[in-house]
Amino acid sequence: MTAPHLEVAEAPTTPGTELGSPATGVAVPGTAAPPTGRAYAVARVGDVPPGEGRAFVAGDVQVAVFRLRDGSLHATQAACPHAGGPLADGQTDPDVLVCPLHLYGFRWTDGSSTGGVGPVRVYPVREVDGMLVVDV
Amino acid sequence: MTAVLGGRPEGLTTIAMDDDDLDTRGRLVVVGNGMAGARLVEEVLERGGGEQFRITVFGDEPHGNYNRIMLSPVLAGETSEDDIVLNSHDWYADNGITLRAGVRVERIDTAAKVVYGSDGTSTAYDHLVLATGSYSFIPPMTGVRRDDGSLLPGVYGFRTIDETRDLLAATTRCTRAVVMGGGLLGLEAARALQGHGMQVDLVHAMPHLMNAQLDAEAGAILERSVEALGITVHLDVLATEVLGDGHVEGVLLKDGRRLDCDLLVVAAGVRPHTDVAVRSGLEVERGIVVDDQLRTDDPDVYAIGECAQHRGSVYGLVAPAWEHARVLADVLTGTDPTAEYHGSRTATKLKVAGVDVATMGVSTPERDSDEFLVISEPRRGVHLSVVIRDDRLVGATLLGDTRKVAALTQAFDRGSALPEERIRLLVDLTDGKEEVGVAEMPADSQVCNCNGVTKGALCGAVADGCGSVGAVMDRTRAGKGCGSCKSLVKQIVEWAADGDVTEDPAASYYVPGVPLAKPALIAAIRERDLRSVSAVFAALAPGGKEDARSKMGLTSLLKTVWGTEFVREKDAEFVNDRVHANIQRDGTFSVVPQMKGGVTTPAQLRRIADVAEKYEVPMVKVTGGQRIDLLGVRKEDLPAMWEDLGMPSGYAYGKSMRTVKTCVGSDFCRFGLGDSTQLGIDLETRFQGIESPAKIKMAVVGCPRNCAEAYVKDVGVVAVGNGRWEVHVGGAAGATVRKGDLLATVDSPEAVIALAGRFVQYYRENANWLERTYDFVPRVGLEHLQRVVVEDAEGLGADLDAALQRSVDAYTDPWGQDGREPATPGQFRPALPLVALPQVPVR
């Protein structure tokens, strides 16, 4: 595996993408565009409490990053493909993420829905030196 | 017409790879390709039995497997033959099953384990299943048979597709029919023939129609309905002779009357097909005798369906046959080698001669203590009755109106609790619009209004193989919104599956991810001292696995059980509880400050106005609960807003006590009989923030004019004068509208608070997750509640009071708590606005 392409060191070129900057953009329903393979360190590990999710901006992509109680990390697009719900506010277990608005579930494995709506885009995420790094 | 039903297109052949020597799979031979035999094969395949067994099926008839129950509609011309095919020849080929259609098994050599077919072949088996079904019984009548033993031309049974075809052909030549037998099949045949324009006489040996299922009174009502169709019914009389030389010309009755006819249909019952079993030396009484694993007295020979006799019973219905198939498939495939069949509680639902009939269990009371409720409306052709024994439904008969069949079937099958007012079993006593039976609902009518699911979509899910109510709900999301349609969804699924619904084991669980009902779960939590949601999963969930959809319910339960000793985990909370506000469609939140009893002050209003302006709140609205709602608040603004408001949370977001509505009571209202305003404030003070299985809404009114709608609240208090207060429980005015039940009338506001407290605590400890009081109260029964809560007959009163007091003492204002110091990093961090804000226009 090649070293992640980190853009932390340089000044961000997209406004609002400083490390740990919250997602504040306007989102529309639907599945996000496929990843292009750029890696961004979005936050420190401790910024995401165990079992919860938080939304960040990676480059110009809004992502929701989750740290499960078993230690595993997951990242998805930030808005629910169904009606744009804030997925970072959802509840999780080792299999699925549940959107808080209409309780649609999405599998971590491939982002597919357990309830018949469009899939959610999942992004590779890993920990590098205490940072959460997302490939978008 | 000689077409083979479910046959293969001509020219298509299957190459059989007959590698007998190489194939190590066991040989499973099924004799009989009817409803039972084919179902067994399906069940075996479903359990992966295709890997275990080489399967051969013998069918007497040349056809694939068809739905025998549907022969009546075929005869009536309402259904085409093709529509009743269950498994075509192709299906057998595709699944690697050898179908020997048109080959009758003559004899079994149980010692050599070989069956001999009518075509001279022999087939070896390791396991043999007899599913030979039954045949039409032809009562002894002079002249019914010719010398060679065959039936006189013009005389038919009504059992197979070939007989049905013959009858259909006969309707074009014949004009007068006699149908012998006033049971199900006879009535169906009579109705179908009459529909083809024939003049039909129905002869029945018993004093009333459908005597096996109906009592005399119901039978008489059915008789009138049948006569109204133009069918002449002759009861309590035997036919002794069939007239005609070379072709039927009439029948002679025992009383001397002669009925002319050119078609005679004999539907005088069926007899189990046991010839081959008898010839092969198996134990046969009325049917082939089997044990609880459907095994005959030969350990490798089984019998299922109508030919089997289990614990003295021979069943003539499809449901038991399917149960046989399930159990035997479990045994044969080893899926559950200990599976046993313990008899069926038979329930049938059908349309006989255009009349809906549903019967289950006994039709009349058998013991002195049996309760028997009958509603008879002969003019409308409706006759409904139920038999109740020891508070359980043991029988029901519905004739002419089967709208309540789903609920009754469920009560009958599962022994579930019955309403105190027994009449509710048979009729709906609501004032609302007439409830339409699920059968009559059009397919496009919407059942789940939250998720837009139609009846057709539910039926589609059942047709696609969803075998339980839960599976259908998962697939369609029906009932997953407000939940008020769940019982209707259940009824429709049960109807669509024709009662063949597997009970969701999960239906009794408190939450889906922990396989325990609420009482057992509470006991385990106490016993193992589990104080956090993650501890509950680790100790009680299968594999210790977390389940996202169970977390909220567990959080609520643990708070109820442990009070201040609960170990809070924010990730186990729903977002509303994490940030103490109600999430809106655009990802913003609504903020509702507490306003006890709906009473506010100019100073409070001024503060609310200032806050609304400062944070550019897009909408300020007065709620239905007599409070003020600030809508469209950004998550990150919540703590500062609370600080500026300086008011406690109104809990307008949680599964908890929400608000107590009041009227102006005795201080100002000229009709007021009691100080409802103060009592409302006192109730809200006591119950503020108390978490519960579902939200609790309360109201207090100062007189029965009910201005604050106390009659339709979870707990509603009504002043009735002389210092007395009525306490109503289980009311609702949401997706479900229900007037609360009067729990008791008490003498003082203190007594109201005490009684309401006991009720709330009993509800908290015993209701299922998300079960509102309007479901809980009827489920446990008002009388039971009165015994426990009012009379303290079970001695729980002191415990309930103490448990509630602990929760009251544990109250803290969440806004004061998390406002200053977030509970977790980023608790109030934006999770992104979803649509351009403000979406709601500022007014």
From TrEMBL, chain A:
Pfam families: Rieske. Residues 40-134 form the Rieske domain. GO terms for molecular function: 2 iron, 2 sulfur cluster binding; metal ion binding; monooxygenase activity; oxidoreductase activity, acting on paired donors, with incorporation or reduction of molecular oxygen. Residues 1-31 are annotated as: Disordered. Signal peptide: none annotated. Keywords: 2Fe-2S, Iron, Iron-sulfur, Metal-binding. This is Nitrite reductase (NADH) small subunit.
UniProtKB/TrEMBL annotation, chain B:
It catalyses: hydrogen sulfide + 6 oxidized [2Fe-2S]-[ferredoxin] + 3 H2O = sulfite + 6 reduced [2Fe-2S]-[ferredoxin] + 7 H(+). Its EC number is 1.8.7.1. Pathway: Nitrogen metabolism; nitrate reduction (assimilation). Residues 654-793 form the Nitrite/sulphite reductase 4Fe-4S domain. Residues 447-494 form the BFD-like [2Fe-2S]-binding domain. Residues 347-413 form the NADH-rubredoxin oxidoreductase C-terminal domain. Residues 27-317 form the FAD/NAD(P)-binding domain. Belongs to the nitrite and sulfite reductase 4Fe-4S domain family. Keywords: 2Fe-2S, 4Fe-4S, FAD, Flavoprotein, Heme, Iron, Iron-sulfur, Metal-binding, Nitrate assimilation, Oxidoreductase, Thioether bond. Pfam families: Fer2_BFD, NIR_SIR, NIR_SIR_ferr, Pyr_redox_2, Rubredoxin_C. This is assimilatory sulfite reductase (ferredoxin). The lineage of its organism: Bacteria, Bacillati, Actinomycetota, Actinomycetes, Geodermatophilales. Its cofactor is [2Fe-2S] cluster; FAD; siroheme; [4Fe-4S] cluster. Residues 583-645 form the Nitrite/Sulfite reductase ferredoxin-like domain.
